[in-house]
UniProtKB/TrEMBL annotation:
The keyword Hydrolase applies. InterPro entries: AB_hydrolase_1 (IPR000073), AB_hydrolase_fold (IPR029058), Epox_hydrolase-like (IPR000639). It comes from the Bacteria. SUPFAM superfamilies: alpha/beta-Hydrolases. One of its GO terms (molecular function) is hydrolase activity. It comes from Chlorogloeopsis fritschii PCC 6912. This is Hydrolase.
Length: 286
């Protein structure tokens, strides 16, 4: 991908951890937060597009790829993720950003925007429900079934063994297996994700996000109404998070737009990048 020659890799120390990020472009800040089991690379189709208008920063979340991987399980809680994002924005020399998040990165983006609405100009979340809607969903049999992997991830060491087996086959199964269009991920893409997960300490760190999920503010029952303009993009064929989790989000967000993408999986920004980019541009008035 020739565009990568204009991408810059860099590091920033914030909240006691060194975070790796890729950046391209100049101007206002657009900060991109990836999900599980990915890293900054999941935004490869968005970085060059939005670098025309922004300084785009796609970070490796703590525990992932080339970012620090604290050993303590207690390091992977929402309060720490929020501090990481705040430190990133400030450390990059900005007061606010357009915040974009998918999956776990989207959950962090929701919670950060509630904690620091003054630092988020606009919020864009992809295939991740509002935390209140996710909490509701976990009380339904259909979403509990779809989220059953989260309960497996609570176990010590066994999930690591299962994911590592057969050259990290579980990573390929999650990406290609869930995708509607099986050509979404090339072998080079799959290898990049496997290599990132195989870095020393990464897999346990990635799983620790889930191991703390039931003890933290993500499932806090009290959520106010968010005033930050928000765009939700949702691939309708998400097998991990049901489309119904997006229903009723307007009760929690005053200025909300939802764009559903049919025949598209959880990996929405990689499977339908042109459409995702178009919806993002429209929302941002570009």
């Amino acid at each position: 991908m020739s565009v990568q020659v204009t991408w810059k890799h860099d590091y920033i120390i914030t909240n006691g951890v060194k975070l790796h990020y890729v950046t391209q472009g100049e101007g206002p800040l657009m900060l991109m937060l990836h999900g599980f089991p990915e890293f900054w690379y999941s935004w490869r189709h968005q970085i060059p597009e939005f670098a025309k208008y922004f300084k785009v920063v796609a970070v490796d979340l703590r525990g992932y790829n080339d970012s620090d991987k604290p050993k303590e399980q207690s390091a992977y809680v929402m309060d720490e993720f929020i501090k990481d994002v705040k430190g990133l924005i400030k450390g990059l020399g900005y007061e606010k950003c357009v915040l974009v998040g998918h999956d776990w990165g989207g959950a962090i983006a929701w919670c950060f925007t509630y904690a620091h609405p003054e630092m988020v100009e606009k919020l864009i979340v992809l295939n991740i429900p509002h935390p209140a809607k996710f909490s509701e969903g976990l009380r339904t049999p259909q979403q509990l079934l779809k989220s059953s992997y989260m309960f497996l991830f609570q176990l010590p060491w066994l999930p690591e063994v299962l994911i590592q087996s057969a050259d990290y086959q579980a990573i390929e199964t999650a990406l290609k297996g869930m995708a509607v269009n099986k050509s979404t991920f090339t072998q080079a893409d799959i290898d990049a994700y496997k290599d990132a997960a195989a870095k020393r300490g990464a897999l346990t760190a990635m799983l620790n996000y889930y191991r703390n999920i039931f003890q933290q503010r993500l499932l806090n029952p009290s959520w106010g109404v968010l005033e930050v303009p928000t765009l939700m993009i949702w691939g309708e064929k998400d097998t991990a998070l049901g489309k119904e989790l997006s229903y009723g989000t307007e009760a929690y967000v005053r200025d909300l737009q939802i764009r559903y993408i049919p025949n598209c999986s959880h990996w929405v920004q990689q499977e339908k990048p042109e459409l995702v980019n178009e919806y993002m541009r429209e929302f941002l008035g570009l």
